[in-house]
Amino acid sequence: MVDRTSTEGDTSEHSAATKISKKLKYGYWSLSDIILCLVLSIIVGSGMSLGAEFYHTSGSPDYWSPSMWGIGAGIAVVVALLFLGLVACWNRRWSRSSHKGTDCDAPDASYAEGASMGGRRVADRIKRVNPHLVRLVMCLGVVLIWLPAIIVFFPGNYSSDAPLQLSAYYNGHVLDAHWPLAHTLFLVACFNTGFHLFGNLSAGVFLYCLAQLLFLAFALSFAADRLIRWNVPVGVVVGAFAIIVFNPVVQTYAMTTAKDSLFSGFLLLTGVLLVQVLRDTSNLRDWKFVVEFCLACLGMSLLRKQGLYVLLIVCLIAVCMSSLHKKRVRFAAIVAVPVCAAVIFPVVVGWCFPVQQSQVLDELSLARQQIVATYMYDNSSLSASEKERIWEYFDKSSLDAGLNSEYPWEGMPGVGRYYNSQTGTGYLEPLTDVAGIDMKTDYTKQHLAGFISLYCELALHHPYRFTTAFLWGSMGYVYPTTLADNRWSGLAPWNEFGVQLGIASSEAQPVDYHQSWKPQKLLAWYCDAAEFFAKAPASTPWGTPSSRYLPFLRLLVPWVSPALPFFALILSLLLIGSRRKFLRGASRKMADGTAHRGDEFALGAGSATFVAMTLVWLLAMLYWLTLFVSPVMCGRYALPLFLLIPLLLCVPWISSLAYRQAERQRENVERTAVEGTGANA
């Protein structure tokens, strides 16, 4: 008797393998692979050469410099070759699996394809264990790795905006809406609890940091457990998470009172759950999943305004995708719950607490910086009418105090000559807050159309100045920097403004974590690890502090710089774009009903998997783009993207839903065989 199922599977497997071979028209690559590698390598090369020129000239680059673009072209060529080699290995992994007639993650696949036999055994054992227990063990492991950071920063790094948020509440008796109200309330709850239990505010700092650290450890362990259950090779998961778990930047902000840390955890959870629902829309019927998804989205929306905007855009695109099929309305309704809650939350808080509305137009931070930069640097070329229009929206005395400053800022070489250190006004290249002080906020709100008109007019006549001001706030997210390049790329100082909280006496105020009993070298490592890779110690006989020490260590600077997410986004896009050709054929066959079992396993997951990969990448990309209009190029602003890096590196590996169904069938067959053996015995 002929096994018809086996015959059909063999035929479709041969057809699938043939189609994959045809897609790779240029040896190991398809045409789309080559184009993608070239485009991404040009982006990397341009960013690296422009960044080096920008910081080398202290923000005065020559955009038409042949040497700069020549170096960029050379970098692009090297990167393109690396990308082509990587894609060749990537294609070989998926195409060799398709020749076997199975998805590389299917039960019959060779374990040598992407994951070792040992890794596969570990993954199988993990899947059999209760997921709550797995996450608990992983979470404890992360906390153990972060123990040195807990010791170094004990009781916590009381910095960033937290002292100002608490000062507004305890000293001004209001909640300042300039900062997220949810974060301020959480800070207040921790500080009140610590003060009433232990009689000092340092306990409040530690309670906050401990809760935050445990939450971040949970978010990472939750993501790792999910990815392993989605059949991402264990080695890939371990490697991707090691990049972040051992990263001193992440460990530092786990012990820092910054809203960005909590937001990072919620962003990661939202990304993981978004992938889960897009892979399998049946999760929308699971109320436990719905509650988890709503809470993650709500936390993401409450802790950063751009978090809400990014969530809306990504979910709107998801609703338009065919992978949701008839579940679009249900998905939209579920997303609407946390969005509406985030909108209503400030209103409810306003009923319970006195709330002071923000006096700063953060949305115009980049625009005001560009206008003030033009006023300072191109003052002689501005017409009298242009100056008059600028003075309508900016205080003339504040601008002139910076223009004619006798007390410039000396924090960075070549920067701050138009900043007045005594008045705190003028223009400071890396920081837009100074331009915000110069701005007439109320007048600008009332005459916003006129401000936009002024902005467009100056942009047309002063493109160089506008471009340079823009790069001050964005270049560090592309080009790896250290404190020498940009002071804000490192850790914010402890209680920078010396805030004293009225709730406690001077003896009970938060204690500085800089203490002599702690290992000082480890403390310096956490405060700016990039300096260890970029600069030479002064004691070396062959160099000065500004020269390079062991130049190859410079390659490690991106690991601890705000530019790390940029490289992760590029690599993730490369792998997702290259895998698309292995998913597209199966999607078409599954859509018209002609797919065989072999097609499903040979070509992968289809459209649902590709949509999940693409949208989680888009979630990270959109947030990364919002950083370009933020008040300063800051290390903590990039922290949420640091936590998304493991997800970005692992989603190209996730298996098809068809594999999940096949795995269940295999388990049923094994169970039946065991039961049959027992019955025969």
UniProtKB/TrEMBL annotation:
Transmembrane segments: 26-48, 68-90, 133-158, 178-198, 205-224, 230-250, 262-279, 308-324, 331-351, 556-577, 598-625, 637-659
Alphabetic keyword roster: Membrane, Transmembrane, Transmembrane helix
Record-linked InterPro entries: DUF6020
Presence of keyword Iron-sulfur: no
Protein name per Swiss-Prot or TrEMBL: Glycosyltransferase RgtA/B/C/D-like domain-containing protein
Organism: Pseudoscardovia suis
Record lineage: Bacteria, Bacillati, Actinomycetota, Actinomycetes, Bifidobacteriales
